[in-house]
Amino acid sequence: MQRRDFIKSIVAAGASAVVGRRAHAVPQGWREFEVTYVITLKDASAPAQLWGSVPQDALDYKRLVDLGWRSSAPAYVLWEGTSRAPIVSAEWLELTIPRDVNITARVMTRDRPASIPTPRARSLPSICARRRARRPMVFC
Prior knowledge:
Elements: H1 2-22, E1 30-40, E2 48-53, E3 62-71, E4 75-79, E5 86-92, E6 100-110, H2 124-134
Antiparallel strand pairs: 1-6, 2-5, 3-6, 4-5
């Protein structure tokens, strides 16, 4: 009887893990994208180092949800000093291993609130005429 309960709990835990992974809900008003960079260095005549910039959080309209990479060489994330932008860095010291990196970033975005005033409709000839009146050498 205890063995049966144990098996049921394992099955229930596995099912909840699968459902939980797929049930990732994007908040209302947000969209989610997966961006994949596939980088292959062709020249293998000398050691090489790669820096790949990836998306970063931006105010309240863009979020980096997940960042992952797969490389044939040791790779890690650096943070650029001024803007705090994430950069994936990989370094190939041996000439015999393939030089490739796959970087995957999941990003959520939403419409950016904008309070940009709409310009009044003006005709191009009237704008050019006013500019020429102020400066005769202006060409429109």
